[in-house]
Amino acid sequence: MIKREPAPEALEKYRILKEDLKALGSVAVAFSGGVDSTFLLKTARDVLGDRAVALTADACFFPRREHEEAEEFCRREGIRQILLEVDETKIEGFSSNPPDRCYLCKKSLFSRFVKEAEELGLACVAEGSNMDDTGDYRPGMRAIRELGVVSPLKKAGLYKAEIRDLSAMLGLPTWDKLSFACLASRFVYGETITRDRLKMVERAEDLLADLGFGQRRVRVHGDLARIEVTPADFERILRQEVREEIVRRLKDYGFSYVSLDLAGYRTGSMNEVLPEAGKSGQA
């Protein structure tokens, strides 16, 4: 692993983060296995020992690969992990996929996390938002605030690049892990989300990963799959043998049409159609 030395500012924020976690006394960390939640959980474990517990949702919007990596990390670090089974289709409003779907989902999920933390006698629930998460359209953060869930990385002023550098310093395997978001974010607003369709997206993105594509998304518009990869990968994905395999396999998974987004991979592309007024105050 290539080590990257954190800047002095990042090290100072790391010190503040540890002090803040120590002051909490105990914490349940909402843990997905991504860059941010892994760094937060590791730091909480280092500071609080067994008074830091991982809470992970076992749901279809959480790919099996990510789930297995999260479980492996907790086993390796000796961290207690509690898996909460979630049927996202039973969350009121989730399946119809309105623009505030993330709020509805996080309100339901984190309500369970808060209840679990209370039953375990832990002081609070913490989640991994950082300073870079103040942009785009993030209605789920409203649920976080309403439930009193804390965001220690954001409080310490940490940005994603700093979290990666600190993760490398700590020897975490996630320091250079690709960005990931809930699979429900792949569906155009108003598109019905089902467990079967979430599985279609998961299989399609797993295929792209197996073919060697790094940052990738498969967005769903009806029976059309809109693939996003980085522009640097355009030439390779358009090679005849690669293109034909992707089309064949995605049609096997249930898609009727397969397209490549010429704008390339970017986060929050489904939010580009939302009016600015609709984004205001929701992130």
Describe this structure in words.
With 283 residues, this protein is α/β, with parallel strands linked by helices. The protein folds into two domains: 8-169, Rossmann fold (3-Layer(aba) Sandwich); 183-266, GMP Synthetase, Chain A, domain 3, CATH 3.30.300.10. The protein has helices at 8-24, 35-48, 64-77, 101-119, 140-146, 152-155, 160-169, 195-210, 234-237, 240-253, 276-279; strands at residues 27-30, 52-58, 81-85, 125-126, 216-221, 224-229, 257-260. Helix 4 packs parallel to helix 5 (140-146). The two termini are 34 Å apart.
- The total strand number stands at 7
Tell me the number of helical segments per DSSP (H or I, 4 or more residues long): 11
Spatial strand arrangement across the major sheet: 3-2-1-4
Number of individual domains: 2
What integer value in Å does the Rg equal? 19 Å
> Percent of residues in helical segments?
40-55%
The CATH homologous superfamily of the largest domain is named HUPs
Residue-averaged pLDDT? 93
Give the amount of beta strand, in percent.
5-15%
CATH architecture of the largest domain: 3-Layer(aba) Sandwich
Separation of termini? Answer: 34 Å
The first-level CATH class of the largest domain is given as: Alpha Beta
| CATH fold-type name of the largest domain | Rossmann fold
Contiguous runs where pLDDT drops below 50 for at least 5 residues: 277-283
Shape: globular
Biggest sheet descriptor:
4 strands, parallel
Quickly give the structural class: alpha/beta
- Element pattern in H and E: HEHEHEHEHHHHEEHHEH
